[in-house]
Amino acid sequence: MAGTTVRVLIAERKFNNTLLSIATFSNCVFIHDYPRSSKIEAHFQSNERLYISYYNIISLGTYPSTPKLTQKSKNNASQYPIPDDYIVETEFSERSLICKTKYISVSKVVCYTINWKIGHAEWSVSSTQSSTAVVNTFLQKINSTKSSGPQLFGFDIEPLYHACLQIGPLEDITSCSQQNKRFNSFGRDVQKAVDELIVKHKLTNLSGEPILYLQHIGFDCKKNQVCINFKDLNSITIQTKLDAIVHVCDEALLSRDGYRHLAADVPSLFCEYLVADH
């Protein structure tokens, strides 16, 4: 990426009988087993004192086609691309923090947010200026010392940088299993968004429980159709629908091969073998 400088020195170390990668990246050493483990440990040494930070990657996020970069610093430190929908849990001054990024699509501005708790009270600060700006606002709230925005957010974590780069367009994925993983991830985000909308629009009963459930959605993907199923149907519902399909096939004199071709073109239908064995 233009304007991005990456300095990497990689070594290996055994930790809990697992081969870990240790990479120096922007003066930090990261001990990790990412992506098998979402936990990353950062070591930083200054004036012969060792500082240790801990990160838990909740959402890796993705790089837009033209990602924003962290601001240039006076000491000419590296600039790092900023992922969209990135969420990380970390610690600072004995506080557990949730740091998030979100691109505002129209203006392509990044909104940086830090959430934390004090007792039962929840606190939050946001900024569209930079990660350092929101960190400075956070530090003012807790009356603490200076900290680096990119480091607190973990933008300088080398394994995350490479993991984000590996998330390419769907067209670049040739493996069906990998494509299905992408669709499953997409489906989870859709399910979460729909659940929130159901609550927002109060599509619930008197107890506040949802009365609408997302079952499946379909998409045209070039010459193929993609159907994502969400809610498992119970055995009685499946039996009723299979009875109806078999009845229609008998009435229309639709053969087994004919239904197989129909099910191939309409992914929301039951697979042919389920109907044949019914």
Automatic annotation (TrEMBL):
Domain of life, per UniProt, equals: Eukaryota
Protein name as it appears in the record = Uncharacterized protein
Could you tell me which species this protein originates from? Rhizophagus irregularis (strain DAOM 197198w) (Glomus intraradices)
